[in-house]
Amino acid sequence: MAKVIIFEDHPSRAERAKDILKNAGHDVVVRITNRDAITEAIEAIADADVIVTTATLPPRALQMLLARLTESVPTIPMIALSDDGQLPLEMLCRHEGLLWEVLPVTNLTHLPHRISVWSGVKSTIDALRRENESLQREVERQTLLADTDPLTGLYNRRYLEQQLELWFHINDRYGTIFSLALIDIDNLERINTDYGRVAGDTVLRVIAQLIRKNLRRADIVARYEGDTFALLAAHTDRSGAATAAERIRNIVASTPVALDSTTVHVTVSVGVAMFPDPTISSTKELLEKADEALYRAQHRGGNRVEVYGREEALKRRILVVEDSSTEALQLTRLLERAGYEVITVEDGNEAWEKVRNECLDMVIADVEVPGMDGYQLCANIKRDARIKHIPVVLVTARDRIQDVIRGLEAGADSFLVKPFESDYLVQQVGALFQKAVSINIPESACKARHVKSEADERGEQAFQLPSIPRVCPADRQQVIELLLDVFKRLAQAQENLQRQNEELQAAKQQLAEYSRSLEERVAERTRELEEKTKELERLLKRTQELEKERIKAARLASIIQTAVTLNHEINNPLMAIIGMAEVIKDMVPSDDKEIHEKLDAITKYGERIAEVLKKLTNLVDAEVREYGNSLTMIDLERSKSNDDNTNRE
User: Fold this and answer.
1) How far apart are CA 154 and CA 496, in angstroms?
2) Residue 380 belongs to some domain of the structure
3) Looking at the chain, which terminus has fewer C-beta neighbours within 10 angstroms, N or C?
4) Does 453 score more than 60 pLDDT?
5) Does the pLDDT of residue 337 top 60, yes or no?
């Protein structure tokens, strides 16, 4: 049963159509469209399954009805009753996409059947539209899941890298600047160890929300990896990005994070890089430069913002004296990542010339180098009043006590035995610079241009071998006492180093466990994304299939409409012509051969036209069989039966 609204300006014809449709079981509402009621009547069409109107409506009323259908409910079919079987062509041309059919008033008995056909077509189209909308919502949901980090709700690394590529293309075309900041939570591993990983996840979520709330809506914030977030700020130079990063750092540092049983205070380190930059040509290099600035912020104590490319001239200069090119390269990379400017030489004499003639902040020398060895270089530096304040670190592969004593007598500020941990060297360097500032040693004229660097927290606590002045004891007892004192300090240093080594091993084990856990989580997330991707592909394929079915249904409906119209408009008068020819033939004398031949020709051509109509009907049947049973509401046999009954009448 279909709900039908009849728009009619003739009450008697409206009542006749209403009676016919009600007898067929349809729910019918009649709207008399006089000038006063047309607007109210048209507002009710949204609830209809099929609309029946008349071509004799006033042009303004008909135009309003077509416009309402086009704008709001284009899937509601419209059957127009016409005395001559036509509607004004200019009106229909203005409203493409509507489902409509013109039915002669003389064939009003066919109206219930046409209502059933069009109601079925509308139901099919509505079902396809609802399924298509559902699929579109699912596609949007899956796309959001693929671009979002499940823990923090921020964008993930995949989305960030896509946006970076996009902004590189925008820069190529329009020259737009943008900046990238990497924000790392300081000492999150300690929170995971002390309070558990659930607490660590809570800290990640809270920090993520603090960052998101205190940035512009246009800024893109993503979880880059682990405890590192990324900020992509469009139309922002390094100064603006540094200001935003400093604001985030202050807010995080001043906001305690509530856990189940306590609160913790968290700080962040931030590295900022900007594009365009002469040293950056790709997204990979931009990420590397931001990571380099982040590394520098972490190794300068954390809870600070470092900007790549700003105030590079204020870096501390370290001279590395090493005849092994491999070890020299490793030391250079390590110290440059920590934010220092490194100069390397292979010969002790060349190193002595650079120390005397160039502005340096520290010397790291291997004790065994060509020319002047490390001991002599250190002694020369400490004897010169102009440069004796420069810290000297001696490095050797030997672990004999005599080598340590010799280095201390030469005035070395620290003595390292290979191999040593790279982080330990960076901590020692930072601690020596901090010590130089704290005791207010004299500075050379070039030192005034440097900015004081903050010592690493653990570097301040690291063991420092004392500087022993050069002595020439007069008797043996003084030498023995001095050596005993050195041995005691070395034993204490050994204990400290052993304890630090144990802590380091424990940290490595925790890191290995965390890495395994992270790999498992990444693998699990990868599997989930692969499954979601497959499901998304299946949904897209189903959407395409449904779209093809919809197009095929529309085509089939058009064919049916054409066939039915031809049967109605051609077959009936054709049968009447053939019958009339037979009657005239019987009335004309048989000896009038010319008239008989013309009447036979009329009959012959009429039967040929009827044969063409029959083939067209068979073609429609073939299309219906090819499409299947999804449009069972279209009953061609019933249509042909009705046509045959009309012909007999």
Assistant:
1) 43
2) yes
3) C
4) no
5) yes
Query: From CA 405, how far away is CA 409, in angstroms rounded?
Result: 6
Residue 67 has pLDDT above 80, yes or no: no
State both tokens at 246. Answer: 């400093």
Angle formed by the axes of helices 374-383 and 401-409, to 10°?
30
Query: Is the pLDDT higher at 563 or at 470?
Result: 563
Question: 156 vs 138, 161, 186, CA distance in Å?
Answer: 20, 9, 20
**pLDDT tier for residue 35 given thresholds of 50, 70 and 90:** low
> What is the amino acid identity at position 41?
A
The whole-model pTM stands at 0.39
- DSSP assignment string, 595-624: HHHHHHHHHHHHHHHHHHHHHHHHHHHHHH
Q: What is the pLDDT of residue 483?
A: 64
Q: Which domain holds residue 358?
A: 312-470
The pLDDT-based confidence of 405 (bands split at 50, 70, 90) is confident
Count other C-beta atoms under 10 Å from residue 509's C-beta.
10
Give the residue from 400, 435, 470 where a domain finishes: 470
Residue 289's pLDDT is 92
Q: What is the CATH number of the domain that holds 221?
A: 3.30.70.270
Residue type, 540: L
DSSP string, 504-566: HHHHHHHHHHHHHHHHHHHHHHHHHHHHHHHHHHHHHHHHHHHHHHHHHHHHHHHHHHHHHHH
Same domain, 246 and 336: no
Give the number of other CB atoms < 10 A from CB of residue 158: 14
Residue in 262, 395, 243 with CA at minimum distance from that of residue 318: 395
Q: Is residue 281 part of a domain?
A: yes
Find out whether the peptide bond into 419 is cis, omega within 30 degrees of 0: yes
**How many whole angstroms from its chain centre is CA 605?**
69
SS (H, E, C) 420-442: CCHHHHHHHHHHHHHHHHHCCCC
Phi, psi of 266 (to 5 degrees): -120, 145
Give counts: helices (H), strands (E), the chain: 20, 17
Q: How far apart are CA 300 and CA 294, in angstroms?
A: 10
Token look-up 């960076």 returns 426
pLDDT of residue 266: 92
Q: What is the mean pLDDT of residues 200-210?
A: 93
Kindly indicate the confidence band of residue 398, based on its pLDDT and cuts at 50, 70 and 90: confident
Residue 618 pLDDT exceeds 70: yes
State the total domains in the chain: 3
Q: Is the peptide bond before 466 cis (omega within 30 degrees of 0)?
A: no
Task: Pull the structure tokens for residue 15.
Answer: 């009542």
Looking at residues 59-71, what average pLDDT do you find? Answer: 70
Residues with Cβ within 8 Å of 535's Cβ and at least 6 positions away in sequence, in order, are 142
